[in-house]
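Input/output pair, single chain:
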Amino acid sequence: QVQLVESGGGLVQAGGSLRLSCAASGRAFNNYAMAWFRQAPGKERDFVAAISWSGRNTYYADSMKGRFTISRDNDKNTVYLQMNSLKPDDTAVYYCAAVYGSPSGSSWYLKGAYRYWGQGTQVTVSS
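Output:
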Protein backbone atom coordinates (compact mmCIF):
# COMPACT_ATOMS: atom_id res chain seq x y z
CA GLN A 1 0.00 0.00 0.00
CA VAL A 2 1.12 3.56 -0.60
CA GLN A 3 -0.02 6.94 0.70
CA LEU A 4 0.32 9.99 -1.53
CA VAL A 5 0.63 13.66 -0.57
CA GLU A 6 0.71 16.38 -3.21
CA SER A 7 2.27 19.81 -2.78
CA GLY A 8 3.42 22.75 -4.84
CA GLY A 9 0.12 24.13 -6.05
CA GLY A 10 -0.75 27.80 -5.89
CA LEU A 11 -1.68 30.90 -7.80
CA VAL A 12 0.35 31.82 -10.87
CA GLN A 13 -0.10 34.20 -13.78
CA ALA A 14 -0.65 32.92 -17.29
CA GLY A 15 2.66 32.03 -18.89
CA GLY A 16 4.19 31.15 -15.57
CA SER A 17 5.46 27.85 -14.18
CA LEU A 18 4.84 25.59 -11.21
CA ARG A 19 6.34 22.32 -10.08
CA LEU A 20 4.09 19.90 -8.27
CA SER A 21 5.45 17.19 -6.04
CA CYS A 22 3.87 13.97 -4.85
CA ALA A 23 5.52 12.31 -1.89
CA ALA A 24 4.77 8.63 -1.42
CA SER A 25 5.02 6.70 1.81
CA GLY A 26 4.91 2.98 2.10
CA ARG A 27 7.05 0.27 0.67
CA ALA A 28 8.55 -0.31 -2.73
CA PHE A 29 7.73 3.02 -4.36
CA ASN A 30 9.86 1.99 -7.31
CA ASN A 31 7.39 -0.80 -8.06
CA TYR A 32 4.56 1.64 -8.75
CA ALA A 33 3.57 3.42 -11.91
CA MET A 34 2.59 7.00 -11.12
CA ALA A 35 0.33 9.53 -12.77
CA TRP A 36 -1.13 13.00 -12.50
CA PHE A 37 -4.76 13.80 -13.16
CA ARG A 38 -6.62 17.05 -12.80
CA GLN A 39 -10.18 18.09 -12.16
CA ALA A 40 -11.64 21.50 -12.88
CA PRO A 41 -14.88 22.61 -11.20
CA GLY A 42 -17.87 20.84 -12.69
CA LYS A 43 -15.73 18.65 -14.94
CA GLU A 44 -14.45 15.10 -15.02
CA ARG A 45 -11.08 14.13 -13.61
CA ASP A 46 -8.79 14.06 -16.63
CA PHE A 47 -5.46 12.42 -17.35
CA VAL A 48 -2.42 14.70 -17.40
CA ALA A 49 0.70 12.54 -17.44
CA ALA A 50 2.07 9.20 -16.27
CA ILE A 51 5.43 7.58 -15.72
CA SER A 52 6.53 3.98 -15.46
CA TRP A 53 8.11 2.55 -12.32
CA SER A 54 11.59 2.91 -13.82
CA GLY A 55 11.00 6.38 -15.21
CA ARG A 56 11.94 5.23 -18.71
CA ASN A 57 8.45 5.57 -20.14
CA THR A 58 6.27 8.66 -19.94
CA TYR A 59 2.82 9.43 -21.27
CA TYR A 60 1.06 12.76 -21.74
CA ALA A 61 -2.33 14.08 -22.64
CA ASP A 62 -2.06 15.81 -26.01
CA SER A 63 -2.78 19.27 -24.61
CA MET A 64 0.12 18.96 -22.14
CA LYS A 65 2.81 17.73 -24.50
CA GLY A 66 5.66 20.20 -24.69
CA ARG A 67 4.44 22.17 -21.66
CA PHE A 68 4.37 19.62 -18.84
CA THR A 69 7.07 17.16 -17.80
CA ILE A 70 6.61 14.25 -15.42
CA SER A 71 9.59 12.79 -13.62
CA ARG A 72 10.35 10.73 -10.55
CA ASP A 73 13.10 10.26 -8.00
CA ASN A 74 12.81 6.77 -6.59
CA ASP A 75 15.43 7.52 -3.93
CA LYS A 76 13.16 10.27 -2.58
CA ASN A 77 9.88 8.42 -3.16
CA THR A 78 8.64 11.43 -5.09
CA VAL A 79 7.09 12.12 -8.46
CA TYR A 80 7.08 15.59 -9.99
CA LEU A 81 5.08 17.51 -12.53
CA GLN A 82 6.85 20.50 -14.02
CA MET A 83 4.27 22.78 -15.62
CA ASN A 84 5.38 25.57 -17.94
CA SER A 85 3.52 28.09 -20.10
CA LEU A 86 0.50 27.76 -17.87
CA LYS A 87 -2.89 28.87 -19.15
CA PRO A 88 -6.08 29.78 -17.31
CA ASP A 89 -7.56 26.52 -18.65
CA ASP A 90 -4.97 24.64 -16.56
CA THR A 91 -6.77 25.79 -13.41
CA ALA A 92 -7.81 22.66 -11.53
CA VAL A 93 -7.14 20.44 -8.57
CA TYR A 94 -4.22 18.21 -9.48
CA TYR A 95 -4.16 14.67 -8.14
CA CYS A 96 -1.35 12.18 -7.87
CA ALA A 97 -2.18 8.52 -8.47
CA ALA A 98 -0.36 5.22 -8.21
CA VAL A 99 -0.77 1.61 -9.20
CA TYR A 100 1.44 -1.36 -8.47
CA GLY A 101 3.26 -2.48 -11.57
CA SER A 102 1.95 -0.92 -14.75
CA PRO A 103 -1.39 -0.23 -16.38
CA SER A 104 -1.87 -2.30 -19.51
CA GLY A 105 -2.02 -0.84 -22.99
CA SER A 106 -4.03 2.36 -23.19
CA SER A 107 -5.08 2.07 -19.55
CA TRP A 108 -2.31 4.49 -18.62
CA TYR A 109 -4.78 7.27 -19.46
CA LEU A 110 -7.68 5.94 -17.42
CA LYS A 111 -8.31 6.96 -13.81
CA GLY A 112 -9.77 3.50 -13.12
CA ALA A 113 -6.33 1.98 -13.72
CA TYR A 114 -4.92 3.64 -10.58
CA ARG A 115 -5.63 2.33 -7.13
CA TYR A 116 -4.14 4.95 -4.84
CA TRP A 117 -4.87 8.66 -4.87
CA GLY A 118 -3.71 11.74 -3.04
CA GLN A 119 -5.95 14.52 -1.74
CA GLY A 120 -5.01 16.93 -4.50
CA THR A 121 -3.39 20.34 -4.72
CA GLN A 122 -5.07 23.43 -6.18
CA VAL A 123 -3.50 25.16 -9.16
CA THR A 124 -4.99 28.49 -10.20
CA VAL A 125 -3.77 30.33 -13.28
CA SER A 126 -4.86 33.94 -13.61
CA SER A 127 -5.18 35.71 -16.95
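The chain has a mean pLDDT of 95. The radius of gyration is 13 Å.
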